[in-house]
Specification:
The complex is a heterodimer of chains A (306) and B (429).
Chain A (H helix, E strand, L loop, with lengths): L15 H17 L14 E6 L4 H13 L3 E6 L11 H10 L4 E6 L4 H8 L3 E7 L5 H15 L6 E5 L6 H12 L3 E5 L15 E3 L2 H6 L3 E4 L15 H8 L3 H7 L4 E3 L12 H4 L6 H20 L3
Parallel strand pairs in A: 1-2, 1-3, 3-4, 5-6, 5-8, 6-7, 8-9
Helix pairs in contact in A: 1-5, 1-11, 2-11, 5-6, 5-11
Chain B lengths: L1 E5 L2 E4 L4 E4 L2 E4 L2 E5 L4 H5 L2 E4 L4 E4 L1 E6 L12 H11 L1 E6 L10 H11 L5 E4 L1 E2 L12 H7 L4 E2 L8 H12 L5 E3 L11 E2 L2 H6 L3 E2 L1 H18 L3 E3 L5 H12 L4 E5 L1 H5 L21 H13 L4 E2 L8 H4 L16 H10 L6 H15 L15 E11 L18 E11 L2 E4 L2 E4 L1
Parallel strand pairs in B: 1-6, 2-7, 8-9, 9-10, 11-12, 12-13, 13-16, 14-15, 16-17, 17-18
Antiparallel strand pairs in B: 1-4, 2-3, 4-5, 7-19, 19-20, 20-21, 21-22
Helix pairs in contact in B: 3-4, 5-7, 7-8, 8-10
Classes of the chains: A alpha/beta (306), B alpha/beta (429).
The complex binds zinc ion.
Amino acid sequence: MSLSNRHLLGLEGVPKEDIQLILDTATTFREVLERPIKKVPTLQGKTIVNLFYENSTRTRISFELAQKRLSADTVNFSTSTSSTKKGETFKDTVRNIEAMKVDMIVVRHESAGVPKYLTKISNANIVNAGDGLHEHPTQGLLDMYSIREKTGTLEGLRVCIVGDVGHSRVALSNIFGLITMGAKVSVCGPSTMMPMGIENFGVKIYNNIDKAIAENDVLNVLRIQLERKAGQTIPSTREYHNYFGITSERIEKNNKNILILHPGPINRGVEITSEVADGPYQVILDQVTNGVAVRMAVLYLLGTMH
Amino acid sequence: MQIVLKGTTLLDPQQKLNHKADLLIVDGIINKVGNLSKDDYRHSTVYEFEDKYCAPGFFDMHVHLREPGREDKETILTGSNAAAAGGFTGIACMPNTNPAIESAETVRFIKEKSAPHLVEVFPIGAATHERKGEALSPMNELFEAGAVAFSDDGTAIKTASILRLCMEYAKMFDAPIIEHCEDPSMADGSMNEGFTSTTLGMLAIPSIAEDLIVMRDIMVAEYIKGKVHIAHISTKNAVELVRQAKKKGINITAEAAPHHFTLTEEAVREYDTNFKMNPPLRTKEDVDAIIEGLKDGTIDCIATDHAPHSSEEKEMEFIYAPNGIIGLETALGLAITELVEKKHLSLNQLIEKFAINPRKILNIPVPQIKEGEEANLTIFDPKEKWSVDVSKFKSKSKNSPFDKMELTGKASAVVNRGKLYFEDKFVNI
Ligand SMILES: [Zn+2]
């Protein structure tokens, strides 16, 4: 069994069999992570570059750990400013890296489309670790993995993505992946946070969090990004919390069987209370562990394709 | 010096010309239209243009030459060469150079620099000082030096009050204010807003950012009886607004760029920065509305918004890449392929959009195919099939999304200012 594409640019258009294969492979690696020696020689001799143009310690560490567990050689190239602003074009940077004979590039960038562009200027396998407001496919995969781990299946499951859907790459990857796997996907948040045409994906839109909790099996709660332009879309974090925050009261009132996910980092007291973030309904730390296993699966499947 | 243009069909809607006739041109002046004698042929250099059409020289009223300031992208000379290759004998250039076109010296510099060339260049002056939208530019002085219109292109004139003053002031010499219609408060994005931008994960520019300013400009023009020209119209609503404004008798004109009647936002899916321009590519509905507007005369002319950028700049990440594409060498082919071949426009209408209306908007005399007139002509073949090859472009920049595209319709030659451009060469005639 192997994947149908030698890059992972997003979950849009990725066939069900591929997602299934990644999730199943991740299950095997998840077991490896429980062993005393958490390392397998699968990608020995492969060189992977983590090209991070945006600060994201968590995602980078997760990828790096996955690479080390697979015995790959890894190099980090991190910068918070675009190389363009430093006088070297992105293309030149990539050509330089390419000249060092790398097998795989994991890329995070604030511009959508950069991973796709990379496939045109590099021969390496490209893994998207987040591009602009577009996709973050490994996050989508680890979310699906974490849900499946708890529920056994994604088919027919009702999953609601809560928060700033318009400024989230996590949301899109979840929507694409979950729909492919047969889940019923909805979104919930203030209407200012819903991007144009989101309903065309076939997702239901909630503006009422109680209803969203009551009518779903899973909530994937997004981080409220106040740093970005997104800050303008709500009057205050207090008002957001009052109307859309996930609290124990809301869960207990509406649906005690709900499963809560959060991609992190958490704004405690804004999109979710500490009580919920640390409570019995959530799998937030499992997601972090699963993230390593899922990334191992992706890197392994891509790295051993040819 | 005398030449004969042989075998062409003359096409000039102003004089209702539509017949085959040879032209004798002596020292750049049309000496005979048809009825040439054997001696005329014998004493002339004869150029064969069998099955081709000869029209008044084409004019592109929206070109960004990068001189002065960014001669690495385009110069007055390379831009003019590209214009000639694309079938244009005249162009108007936008003021967003460095320095901007806002002094008589800069206007004269451009006019003098372009004087020896076949292609006439008409500068468009900045409407406001440094195109900042705060104070009027010295419009009268610019006009006297040779500016034909005023614009803050790149952006709309910042406020309604300054726009009003610009329009009022320009009325004194009947020059239009050319507006790049976009409300900047809504324009923080890299493509058209809609389901496609949502799918691609990009901040986007809604079509109403354009509509709002078109509406504002129409109302200001109506209120003070000013003259406004809408540059690169790209939305369905904007076309309808202009249509209604014309019905009310408001002094408004509009242009459309070939990419806006050829491509939709779907083209952005590959994140190729050669599909990034401002206004952005819109939807199929908008494209259809633009074609409809061209058909019914709501949109007066076709202008390229030729915007050269170096490959280093264009090969950036999508959100950082500069807006704009070059268009001089593909405009005619795209217009014939998309509009004439598909029966939206007749060849006569095409000539109105390419040669007659842009000059009328700018109060530039329209060339006539008549004995005694200066020969200012475009000879083109509406049936010639060709494949776009940017590496052969005369433009210094290569940022075209149309590379490798198969087109129908191509300029064969242009004549103006006593020169002929034919088969890649300029000849004094
Ligand atoms: Zn413009």
